[in-house]
Design a protein that fits this description.
Length: 264
């Protein structure tokens, strides 16, 4: 029996990183048992965990490249926005100087030429800063658009997924059997052939782990959720768990951004 290097939960069957040699369960490795079996002996030996992949240079996919480009643009925008408060203060100071200079010019005829030059210089600075303000406004618009695109990309990647909350972690559990038990309770048959992957996913700031199921198409996912929601009091006792009964919730697998919107 091995212990997962990420969640410290013991397991009988999981994966091993070919680089750091650490053992992980399928959920923390972010790979399904079926997907792991399909790799074959050679690719299993070459498989790397997320930490080792991060240390190794990788050829970005088109989606990753697009996301990295967006993030790079966001960082550039933030750097350009850092000086915004200073620029606004400069505008106020310059306008005050301009007002003072004009007042002085009215009472001092001997320095009219010098003051005219200074006024022209200040006015040019004001013009430049006002143009910069327009650029800043455009950057803020681009930043908002980039954030929206990232959130949309994240949610699109979850369209075929559901999350199941409330199912306790059990030693040597079979997640496919749990999905099958839920399907029987809600009267919706869901064979393995319709499932792309199923795994446990940690919940932020909690010892619990969700079950995330990725279906092969969105229609199966929508039908499964509809059937589950029709059963108002789905609980752990309904799917074969002993002891104190707990509610089981089946929902869309939403991104963190979409969950924030729903909580408002």
């Amino acid at each position: 029996m091995n212990t997962c290097a990420l969640c410290n939960v013991q397991f009988n069957d999981g994966v091993q990183c070919g680089s750091c040699k650490k053992h992980l369960d399928f959920g923390c490795a972010n790979i399904s048992e079926l997907g792991w079996r399909k790799l074959g002996a050679t690719r299993m030996a070459q498989w790397k965990c997320l930490a080792c992949k991060t240390l190794s240079p990788a050829v970005p996919t088109s989606d990753q490249a697009s996301l990295e480009t967006i993030l790079s643009e966001i960082r550039d925008m933030k750097r350009q926005l850092i000086n915004l408060p200073t620029l606004i203060d400069d505008i106020k100071v310059i306008k005050e100087e301009l007002s003072d200079l004009k007042s002085t010019c009215e009472g001092t005829s001997g320095k009219l030429v010098e003051f005219d030059l200074r006024i022209a210089e200040v006015e040019n600075k004001v013009s430049v800063i006002e143009k910069m303000q327009e650029t800043i406004n455009d950057l803020q618009t681009d930043l908002s658009r980039a954030k929206f695109e990232i959130a949309s990309f994240d949610q699109r990647s979850r369209l075929n997924n559901i999350e199941i909350k409330g199912v306790p972690i059990k030693k040597d559990e079979n997640l496919f059997s749990i999905i099958d038990a839920i399907g029987q309770k809600v009267n919706y048959s869901c064979p393995k052939t319709l499932i792309n992957y199923v795994s446990r996913v940690p919940i932020y700031n909690s010892n619990e782990k969700l079950i995330v199921v990725g279906f092969l198409n969105r229609y199966v996912k929508e039908d499964f959720i509809a059937a589950a929601r029709a059963v108002k009091d789905l609980s752990t006792s309904d799917i074969g768990f002993q002891g104190t009964s707990r509610r089981v919730f089946v929902n869309d697998h939403l991104s963190a951004e979409h969950k924030k919107l729903l909580s408002k």
